[in-house]
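Please go through the sequence and fold tokens given here and tell me how the chain folds. Record follows.
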Amino acid sequence: MASVDDADTNKRFATEHGGGFSILSDPTKATAKAYGVIRTDRPPEQQLAARFTFYIGPDGKIADIDKGPRGTGVAPRTAGEDTIKNLEALGVKKK
């Protein structure tokens, strides 16, 4: 997971939601810009990252990108289920 929020904000988010995972803090938005997910149609202070899911293979290449049903971002409510379905479609075996 990556976020354009600072490390303290991301740590609070993970703690509040019981996240047992790391969150990349990208407050300069450099990584988000490199992946093309920043909403550039807004003023800089309102440029947030779209909620896209990138599936990166063992070779380090992007295997797929889930941009959500309308291309505006994945739905947080179904993101877990959607991720499992997409991993299955990509042929990723369960452990």
